[in-house]
Design a protein that fits this description.
0% strand; single chain; mainly alpha; 212 residues
Length: 212
């Protein structure tokens, strides 16, 4: 990030800081989900950390590009229900974690590793829906997208690594029942996305500087 800022020069520093702030805001859902996911795992291997951080960062970087390419002409057909998609994906994974947490201890549990398979894809999409709207904002304001997409992806990946380390420690300290907390957190994030879009009109284009 430091070298990116230097390469842009002092005149572009305020715009770069705006992009960083936007990236941090977009990465908060992924950060919270990574904590919840690692809480359920209790012990995170480096491979699991890499898979979740890589895919979350990748989707967060790709979604703004997709939104930027689509533009407002087609996005208006998606905007009315994009938050419902995010809510459904996160609520599904959260409910699955809750159900599995109530299984008797002597019953074998299915593989519930959120860093694999369909769970990984659903979580990656669910946490990056807002980034699609951010890409639309860059398109509407005639701003560039490649630098913002790169910054958003890198910051998200870094925060996911931190979140998984935090969640793994919580999982080891609190034991099996933290799966309940993880499920509730995922459902809560989905509800928060609904509230942001419906009551606070979070889908409106944020004030993003142009010229990058």
């Amino acid at each position: 990030m430091y070298y990116m800022a230097r390469a842009l020069g002092p005149q572009s520093m305020p715009k770069f800081l705006e992009i960083v702030c936007i990236a941090l805001g977009l990465a908060m859902d992924a950060f919270a989900v990574s904590i919840a996911a690692s809480v359920a795992l209790k012990r995170c291997t480096p491979r699991q950390v890499f898979r979740l951080s890589f895919h979350f960062g990748l989707f967060q970087a790709l979604m703004p590009v997709i939104g930027w390419l689509i533009g407002r002409g087609f996005y208006k057909y998606i905007a009315p229900f994009d938050h419902w998609v995010a809510f459904a994906l996160l609520a599904f994974i959260g409910a699955k974690m809750l159900l599995e947490s109530f299984q008797p201890a002597d019953e074998p549990k299915p593989d519930c590793d959120p860093t694999k398979g369909a769970s990984l894809v659903l979580l990656s999409i669910g946490t990056s829906i807002d980034a699609l709207a951010a890409g639309l904002a860059f398109s509407v304001l005639a701003g560039g997208i490649w630098l913002p997409a790169l910054v958003i992806g890198l910051i998200t990946a870094a925060l996911v690594v931190v979140g998984m380390r935090i969640g793994a420690r919580l999982g080891l300290a609190l034991g099996h029942y933290v799966e309940i907390t993880g499920g509730i957190v995922l459902i809560g994030i989905g509800v928060k996305i609904l509230i942001d879009h419906i009551w606070f009109n979070a889908g409106a284009a944020p004030p993003i500087a142009t010229g990058l």
